[in-house]
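Appendix B, Record 12. Input sequence as logged:
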Amino acid sequence: MKKIKLLAFLLAACLCVAGCAKETDTSERQQALKQEGMELQASGDYEGAIAKYEEALGLSNMEVGQEEIDLAYYKASAQYRSGDLEGAIDTYSAVIALKDDENSYLGRGLLYVAAKDAEKAEEDLNKALKETDDPLIKGIIYNVVDQADMAKKYFEEAKKAGNAEGSFYLAGTYEKAGDHNYAMILLEEYLASGSASAEGYLSVGRSYFEDGDYDSALKTFQAGIALGESGVFKNLMQEEIACYEKLGDLESARTKAQEYLEKYPDDIVIQKEYEFLKSR
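Logged structural output:
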């Protein structure tokens, strides 16, 4: 759950930086390249995605606005997914050089946590904590530094303020404390909010799956798939196949495995699974 939500945050933390207006044609070309990058990223081709984001950034003519910041964070998310933590940190650092605020420091701080650089993580997270009034961001920071009571306090505040992500993160604190039942209630609230992301559906679906509630898991994964292409679309399709297998519906599992391989033909694990399912 932690890795998926970190990715979700990295994708969402696009900063508003004032810049010069660009020609409409340039903006449209950037958006087209960004879309191509997102599709490649969803398919697991992170290097291809990074190349598209960099090509789009190259059209900026040194003019930095919201579109460029947005592209930089998509690039960082692809770098993170590919395992290039150093590259993702460098991308965040480039944005911080233009505008340093709580979102950029939080994003880079979380990457430093993933890189196990405690000193730099603490420095960035403390800066984010001092600069933000957002209870969700405060909760995330306290959660990362294992101050559970403070994290719970701020996630509760975010939840009461109407931020559905507060319910998601709050569920994690209760799960960690051993209250699995209440954690699941909170996750159900999160889904019912109507604002759950594909990453959220994947995380909640996996919770159902681990509980052996394969019907709920299947519905949850399918709801995430219905959102369309995302950074976890491939994972959602894999989990859908696993659910059908657990439910004993091998025909549907076989059909979904075939659909998956049409989209991701190089996945050796699912290739073997599909051959097994064809033999049943």
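The chain has a mean pLDDT of 87.
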